[in-house]
Write a structure and sequence with these properties.
- With about 230 residues, the protein is α/β, with parallel strands linked by helices.
- It has one domain (about 25-55, about 70-220): P-loop containing nucleotide triphosphate hydrolases (Rossmann fold).
- The protein is built from seven helices and ten strands.
- The chain has helices at about 40-50, 75-80, 95-105, 110-125, 140-150, 170-185, 195-205, and strands spanning about 1-10, 15-25, 30-35, 55-60, 65, 80-85, 160, 190-195, 205-210, 215-220.
- The chain has a six-stranded mixed sheet, with helices on both faces.
- Helix 6 links the parallel strand 7 and strand 8 (about 190-195).
- Helix 4 packs across helix 5 (about 140-150).
- It is globular.
């Protein structure tokens, strides 16, 4: 499903954010992408959403070379990949329902589609009863659930979660991790980028560890042991 073929990303001529990455991720896997800050985790995710292009090598999604994607085709690629960030990125002046609906509006979703899909995805993330709330009425964990709902709304085949629990307390951290596991069980590939050792070691899933731009470990049911 996802294939990094000898991928390097060099910034400013000599700063290697990623160096000779070879990696395959199968459909419906749950991956923990581990490593300290600056290891290259976010760069790897940016290559998948075509926010960056590799300096060397190729990145494939469903056998499509992402380096060759034309600007007009980027929206279609990004509908296949839901993105969740540490800082939520919600629209403060819109309700929870409207925040999720907006993701459909920008790609031309019809009113009927929005009315059908938004309540369904809010139910999946456990926020059906808070559709008319505004973000400032929610806890940090609930805000992240909204962000996950927004990432889910296009029924992506992959969700990339970039430090999604970085701003959350322990209880909300595990609520979000459990939600990602639930979404994975429904058939969505999850790539969870985090340096939270406790989360990674308790998941018992495949762990890909980066350090200084290099892939140093790839283990089924691995641990974060840097």
């Amino acid at each position: 499903m996802i294939h990094f073929d000898s991928v390097s990303k060099i910034y400013n001529g000599n700063c290697a954010a990623l160096e000779d990455i070879n990696l395959r991720i199968k459909a419906k896997e749950f991956i923990s992408l581990a490593g300290p800050s600056g290891a290259g985790k976010s760069t790897l995710l940016k290559l998948l959403i075509c926010e960056e292009k590799p300096t060397q090598g190729k990145v494939f999604l469903d056998k499509q070379n992402l380096s060759l994607v034309k600007p007009k085709d980027l929206p279609a690629i990004r509908r296949k990949i839901g993105m969740v960030f540490q800082d939520f990125r919600l629209l403060a002046n819109r309700t929870i329902y409207e925040n999720v609906a907006f993701a459909m509006e920008v790609v031309g979703g019809t009113n009927d589609e929005i009315k059908q899909d938004v309540p369904q995805v809010l139910d999946v993330v456990g926020l059906a009863d808070k559709a008319e709330y505004f973000p400032n009425h929610l806890s940090g964990g609930e805000k992240q659930r909204v962000a996950i709902a927004r990432a889910l709304i296009h029924r992506p085949s992959v969700i990339l979660a970039d430090e999604p629990t970085g701003n959350l307390d322990l209880l909300n951290t595990w609520d979000i991790v459990k939600l990602l596991l639930k979404i994975n069980e429904l058939g969505t590939t999850i790539i969870l980028a985090t340096h939270n050792r406790e989360v990674i070691n308790n998941l018992g899933r495949r762990v890909i560890t980066l350090d200084k731009g290099k892939l140093i470990r790839d283990e089924e049911k691995g641990r974060y042991i840097l």
